[in-house]
Specification:
three-stranded antiparallel β-sheet; 84 residues; alpha+beta
Length: 84
């Protein structure tokens, strides 16, 4: 009976949460720290799309660095740092 009344919520996966995140350049020691009110997965995808499309209107300082230096984008180097 207790399980039926007090079922715990399913926790959101980490990438579905928001907060502070870090992007690390795979080709040099450059780091970018950002904050998002949207989910990490949405924000990380925005950085990826901006890099792949080279659209200036979507560029962040991190993507600008990657494009100017001819570096690559690695989604595995996008890391949540603090959950809000």
């Amino acid at each position: 009976m207790r399980d039926m009344v007090c079922s715990p919520k399913n926790p959101l996966p980490l990438l579905q949460k928001c907060g502070v995140y870090r992007l690390a350049c795979p080709d040099c020691p450059t780091l970018y720290v950002g904050e998002t009110e949207r989910s990490f997965s949405i924000r990380f995808n925005e950085h990826k799309v901006a890099f792949e499309s080279k659209l200036q209107k979507w560029q962040s300082a991190f993507v600008e660095h990657l494009l100017e230096e001819g570096h690559t984008f690695d989604p595995k180097r996008c890391t949540p740092l603090h959950i809000e």
